[in-house]
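Extended Data, panel c. Modelled sequence:
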Amino acid sequence: MGAKFPDMPQGGPMTVVLFDVDGVLIDSWAAYRTVWGAWAATHALDADTVWTAIHGRRPEETVRDVAAHLDPTVERLVLDRLVVGAEPQFRAFAGAADLLDGLPVGRWAVVTSGSGSATRERFLRNGLPLPDVLVGGEDVDAGKPDPECFLRAARRLQVAPRAALVVEDSPAGVAAARAATMRVLAVAATHRAEELAAADVVVPDLPAAAELVHRWLAARQ
């Protein structure tokens, strides 16, 4: 007997997919542990406290939350330099290239709280196809959990928000997609499934997500 797959979330057909990057397509856990741990040590901050604040959010917003006495713009430059040193630790998850290669051109986008230019370079280095639409943290006024990033991606793909499926891994990202009135498929790679319960469906890894993405897009007609 074959495996039973979750039903497609109600709300009409989904015609495009909006992917978060870190924790979904790129395994950045070790890299960001290194980066934020080094940054926290420089400022005598508790590394675990800082770590809990970073997921799905722009670096400037994390700095404001954990070190309000520091200048977020200055610290972003410091963090960017630390990220350059950690680049070899950013690696694509197994199946990421096949998933993106198998999607129709113009039917998917990347939405990240990180730098758009760094994301493009990371995709190229890991053999991932570049998206036609990429919304980076620098492209929005407010980061996740604000829905601006996902709404901007939908506009650039020329679809209504309800036609978009978001693939996320963080509570902030799930909340942003929900606020944008989009359906959400969560990957429990960086958070426990119960922390992602606001998503329509939660799966354990990217291969499981890929199966559903292809099934649900194929059912759009």
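The beta strands are 16-19, 26-27, 91-92, 108-111, 133-135, 164-168, 183-187, 201-203. This feature is highlighted in the accompanying rendering.
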